[in-house]
Amino acid sequence: MPVTSALAEVSFEGKTIEWIIPFSQTGGSDTWARFNAPFLTRHLPGHPEIEIVNEPGGGGTRGPNTFASRARPDGLTIMGTSGSTQFPYLLGDLRVRYDYKDWKVVMVAPTGGVVYVAPETGVEGPGSIDRLVDQTLVFASQGPTSLDLVPMLAFRLLGLDVSYVFGYTGRGDGLIAMERGEVSIDYQTTASYLRNVVPMVGTGDAVPLMSWGILDENGLMKRDPTFPDLPIVEEVYEMLHGEPPSGPDYEAYRDFNVAGFAAQKMVVLPGGTPPEIVEAWRQAWRDIFNDPEYQNSVGPVLGAYDQVTDRAAEALYIEGTTIDPTVRRRILDMLSNEYAVRLSDQ
């Protein structure tokens, strides 16, 4: 039976769909999922309820491990991935019990992120970032194989002295640590930054420094359209060092930035899901993207990024789950030598 014919028979009426988010509440992935959930209820056939299931732990691996072992191919369980589920997979983390090749992607949402510091650092904005050079900063991290690898590589590239406190279960916890004065530097992905940090900036409790930027059509890094007034890491490097960044450290940062943000958030179904159910999910996302209410509200919440499905999603899916072996080797050596993190293939 053609997919278009079978699609009419797909209905989730009276059902509850579980959306696994492998991170704590209030973080960027949680914000992203909770924003999208009502629109999925509106546009999926049968208008099912969407239940967000936060399952943090394992540096972002616990949730996908659960999904891989328990989710049935019936369209009633989906997972939202992030760089913190991609990176352990790319690096061969011992905790990974999932394989992206086994899943069906139905939507990919690029995103950005902003680094900010406590006002106690004495920094007033990007123009005074040089005041950080002689300080020891503290950063709350989910772990060196999580999405936090991007700021770790950026801080290393810029020459900042940062002490990492590992073991946090999500970026939302890093935000709480900043609010409590336990750390002095943090970053949040765009959705969380807009929701949680912008008010802190308004009250003088946080100072934005830079964004991760986005890729343009020529593959070059440029300023994030959601944060056009903030410099990107490349600009900050040139401010501090008088020349554009280059060399292996920059290549490693850039590759993981692309893998972690250009293709950061994905919605996947289990392998073996029937084609008509996969198509029903993709059609729902097409309808969401064309929903006038969605179009009018998505930017202020999630940022100015094009979320995609179909072939565009599949292309980003491949890009976000593939990395050059030379860069991978360099990162593994760095993790082993500098953080005593040894992974399964070393």
Automatic annotation (TrEMBL):
<protein>
    <submittedName>
        <fullName>Tricarboxylate transport protein TctC</fullName>
    </submittedName>
</protein>
<dbReference type="InterPro" id="IPR042100">
    <property type="entry name" value="Bug_dom1"/>
</dbReference>
<comment type="similarity">
    <text>Belongs to the UPF0065 (bug) family.</text>
</comment>
<dbReference type="InterPro" id="IPR005064">
    <property type="entry name" value="BUG"/>
</dbReference>
